[in-house]
Amino acid sequence: MLPRVAIFQHAADCHAGTLAGHLAADGIVPTIVQLDRGEAIPDLDRYDILMAMGGPMDVWQEDAFPWLKDEKAAIRAWVCGDDKPFLGVCLGHQLLADALGGKVGPATVSEINLLDIALSEEGRRHPLYAGFGETKRGVQWHGAEVKAMPEGAVLLASTSHCPIAAFAYGSSAFGLQYHVEATDQSIVDWSASSEDALRRLHPPGYGSTLRMRVSEGFAELLGNSRRLYDNFMRIAVERLAY
């Protein structure tokens, strides 16, 4: 029986990207919950796996985006109460940390680039990164970051300017600051919606340069995405079996 997957989405251009493609290839049709459009969180007892994607808002903007409170509560219950498989990307990574008692704030150094993601010693041993070397490339696009992990979390990866680029919690909950789901079209969409941030960090036209770099390296990035997805799903299925 195929696992039932729910995905929290926070913006139209922050969809599941390559992860959606992997789910489709495996015959899995996820339920997409568009929280930014006012959709209510469904009864999560009907699902086996929960994912949370990125978005332009910040975890502390609960007054502007009141649904963040319900989302954090749902993530907390899912991970702490039920210890069920969770994968959070970018904002989803930060929401996981915040919901479990970690700290999130403005990034010391914002990152918009294709960067090396360096695995920690624990990351190199962790089944989420089975088959990877000491580093892998990934797209970073964020102005906030996890400042402190929840108590009991395990650091899995970092970049030169982002000390907590990935962490694990419990049996099968993971947060990734980098965009494992990104495509070259993602770069186009985010360049348009984050023009000011891009201009502050890079010279004019860098969005096109980054898209070219991502496009040229997409076979590698897609392979990395598929390997991590396969590893996560293997961990998830093993967790759901007991």
Percent strand:
25-35%
Helix and strand content put the structural class at: alpha/beta
Largest sheet: 9 strands, mixed
Count of DSSP E strands? 9
Number of helices: 8
CATH topology: Rossmann fold
CATH architecture: 3-Layer(aba) Sandwich
Runs with pLDDT <50, length 5+?
none
Distance between the termini: 15 Å
Strand order across the largest sheet: 2-1-3-4-9-8-7-5-6
Number of domains: 1
Please give the share of residues in helix: 25-40%
Shape: globular
The CATH superfamily turns out to be Class I glutamine amidotransferase (GATase) domain
Given this structure, which CATH class is correct? Alpha Beta
SSE order in H/E notation? EHEEHEHEHEEEEHHHH
Query: How large is the radius of gyration?
Result: 17 Å
Mean pLDDT: 96
Topology overview:
Layout: E1 5-9, H1 17-25, E2 31-34, E3 49-52, H2 67-81, E4 86-89, H3 91-99, E5 103-119, H4 121-125, E6 135-148, E7 154-158, E8 166-169, E9 173-176, H5 184-193, H6 195-201, H7 206-216, H8 218-240
Parallel strand pairs: 1-2, 1-3, 3-4, 4-9
Antiparallel strand pairs: 5-6, 5-7, 7-8, 8-9
Helix pairs in contact: 2-3, 5-7
